Amino acid sequence: MKYEADLRGKTFTVDIPDPEDEITGILLNEEPVKVSMQQLPDGRLILRNNFRTHIIENITVQYHEIEFTLDGTWTKAYLRDEQMLLLASLGFKVGAKQGEGKLTAPMPGKILNLLVKEGEEVELGTPVVILEAMKMENELKAPVAGKVAAIKVETGQSVEKNNLILEIEPVG
Predict the structure, then answer these.
(1) On the CB side of 27, how many CA atoms lie within 13 Å of its CA?
(2) Which helix (H) or strand (E) holds 88?
(3) 112-171 confidence digits (pLDDT tens)
(4) pLDDT digits (tens, 9 = 90+) for 91-103
(5) Rg for the chain (alpha carbons), in Å?
(6) Taking the CB of residue 144, how many other CB atoms lie within 10 A of it?
(7) Is-above-0.70 flag for pTM?
């Protein structure tokens, strides 16, 4: 599977073998890189590439945006898959897929604060909810630009992973 990733101000191409095969290497900017990954019981990942070892933790995924700590440094990456790259190369606007106006809980937690109201206009990436999880406050952002159509939770409510928090009617 081919991807393009924006990470720390740089764009990389990544070609990952079929997940059913044992992954022993990837192509990074068309250059082979030996990698192995191991998930620890506490959820952290150990990534080994060539002769370097990295620890990845605090992973949150919201559509094509991934946030995590890499060796203790907070990092955000934006991924484009093969379909997005093909559509962009054909001149199509690559935006939200249908259903991406739905914001779901990335992990179990408690709603500390709703930062928007129904009917309010929001931009892509606007903070909309504060979710407390594992004694940390996590700012959840609007997955699309649009109008807040429905808020499905209340302040103080506990949510499970993938519970619907709110829906945004996309514009455009």
Answers:
(1) 11
(2) helix 82-89
(3) 999 999 999 998 888 999 999 878 888 888 888 899 999 999 999 999 988 999 999 987
(4) 655 554 445 788 9
(5) 18
(6) 21
(7) no
| φ/ψ bin of 91: left (φ > 0), alpha (ψ from -120 to 50), beta (otherwise) | left
Pairing of strands 2-7, 52-62: unpaired
Gap between the Cα atoms of 72 and 126, Å rounded: 25
Give the number of other Cβ atoms within 10 Å of residue 37's Cβ: 12
pLDDT at 157: 96
Report whether 140 contacts 60 (CB < 8 A).
no
Domains of the chain: 2-88 (3.30.700.30), 99-170 (2.40.50.100)
